[in-house]
Design goal:
Largest sheet: 7 strands, antiparallel
Strand content: 35-45%
Length: 249
């Protein structure tokens, strides 16, 4: 299989306002999804715990922590698998600090269904979806990174182990970057879907040649105030979010 090359990097304007029309409903092949499309002039970050080491766990806790810093949480989603103690499974980098090391090779569960991958944000703000082996070989500088698996789409090809008629259907979420490198699509299914159908959405509808599965089932949650959605439940590990400076009162 071809390696998934990183999407070209583009500079971010720190804390630039995200567009109000970020999130929208999409119907694809009779299934329903929420797609949050974020241009690379937005401030995309990964979050796990606060400055005192306390797990955020819920979107409300993250939003409150950001508010105390004069920032607003515009959008958020769970951002990868985690252990029972909510520690990340595989590579996790937050604000330039590596908190968990990359895991290579096949293993149990969805994470170990190689090729798996890494979603990263570079220090200059560029975003990329990499195949894990390529990321490890390249060793790019990153400000944020989360590893998950499996890859959904690799250089325009759907993961070879996915079955179009697969009967395992769950709510799933993932991330992909458009071929022109200008837009990051964060997606959550609003109905149970199989891996192949989820991957086709990224490749055929959203035009992302490389896309990564983040998680599924009860772990998949979204925070999208513009859609009046703030999903709660079991505490999460890593989260990805878009932030901006809070409006002055």
């Amino acid at each position: 299989m071809r390696n998934a090359a990183a999407t070209s990097l583009f500079s971010l304007l720190a804390c630039a306002p995200a567009k109000a029309e970020t999130c929208r409903a999409v119907e694809f092949e009779t299934a329903f999804y929420t797609v949050c499309s974020v241009s690379l002039d937005a401030d995309i970050r990964l979050f796990h715990s606060d400055g005192d080491g306390n797990l955020h766990g819920q979107f409300d806790a993250l939003a409150a922590d950001l508010e105390a810093q004069g920032l607003e949480l515009v959008f958020a989603m769970n951002a990868g698998m985690y252990h029972e103690d909510r520690a990340p499974v595989g590579l996790y980098v937050e604000a330039g600090e590596e908190r968990a090391r990359i895991v290579l090779g096949p293993g149990p569960g969805n994470f170990g269904m190689v090729p798996n991958g890494v979603f990263s944000i570079a220090p200059d703000g560029g975003a990329a979806v990499w195949e894990s082996e390529t990321f490890a070989e390249t060793a790019p500088p990153v400000a944020y990174a989360t590893q998950s698996g499996p890859m959904l789409v690799v250089d325009g090809d759907i993961h070879p182990r996915f079955n179009p008629e697969g009967t395992s259907k769950k709510r799933r979420n993932g991330v992909g970057i458009t071929a022109d490198g200008k837009t990051v699509h964060f997606v959550i299914s609003d109905v149970p879907v199989n891996f192949h159908g989820f991957a086709r959405l990224f490749r055929d509808e959203l035009g992302t040649p490389n896309a990564l599965f983040l998680d599924g089932g009860v772990a998949s949650k979204i925070y999208a105030p513009e859609l009046e959605r703030n999903e709660k439940g079991l505490e999460m590990g890593p989260m990805v979010g878009v932030v901006r400076r809070a409006a002055r009162q």
